[in-house]
């Protein structure tokens, strides 16, 4: 069983590496901003003072070894829903404070890990993964057709889901 999980983890890493290598070729170059902004960081505007991981593998590793839950935000730069949620997320002081207790990753590309799209590939979607590397399919937003979608009006639900992710982790580990 151990070898099987190592093998599936290895295959996952290979698949993700291939996907990343493929995406590396097509970088977005348009940077249009009205007001001068800080250089683009891994936060991509979701919280510049927060520590963000660069890759899914790094995020999983950090989550496992720091015993912090992982919060993955799938979004796209040119999606108005993603942009609206990002603004609400970045401006919500309590969320920004609570986010410090998570390993954070925001992705502007799809991963090959099917666990990260349990009900389809759409943006924005936010998933929580606990340090045992289990996707928390029980922590969802309010839409039955897009379980992990949040809109700016759902920001308080997202906040309580972040609290739930921390609480569940503590009671189950």
Automatic annotation (TrEMBL):
Sorted UniProt keywords: Endoplasmic reticulum, Secreted, Signal
CDD domains per record: AGR
GO (cellular component) term, any one: endoplasmic reticulum
UniProt-annotated location(s): Endoplasmic reticulum; Secreted
Source taxon at top rank: Eukaryota
Family, per entry: Belongs to the AGR family.
Protein known as: AGR2 protein
Organism: Pedionomus torquatus
Taxonomic lineage: Eukaryota, Metazoa, Chordata, Craniata, Vertebrata
């Amino acid at each position: 069983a151990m070898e099987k999980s190592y093998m599936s983890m290895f295959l996952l890493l290979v698949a993700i590496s291939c996907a990343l290598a493929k995406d590396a070729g097509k970088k977005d170059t348009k940077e249009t901003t009205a007001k001068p902004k800080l250089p683009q960081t891994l936060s991509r505007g979701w919280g510049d003072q927060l520590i963000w991981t660069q890759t899914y593998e790094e995020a999983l590793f950090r989550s496992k070894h720091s015993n912090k839950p992982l919060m993955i935000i799938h979004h796209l730069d040119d999606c108005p829903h993603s942009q609206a949620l990002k603004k609400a997320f970045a401006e919500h002081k309590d969320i920004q404070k609570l986010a410090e207790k998570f390993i954070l990753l925001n992705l502007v590309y799809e991963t090959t890990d099917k666990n990260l799209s349990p009900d389809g590939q759409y943006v924005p979607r936010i998933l929580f993964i606990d340090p045992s590397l289990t996707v928390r399919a029980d922590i969802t937003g309010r839409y039955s057709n897009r379980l992990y979608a949040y809109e700016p009006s759902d920001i308080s639900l997202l906040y309580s889901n972040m609290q739930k992710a921390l609480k569940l982790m503590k009671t189950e580990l």
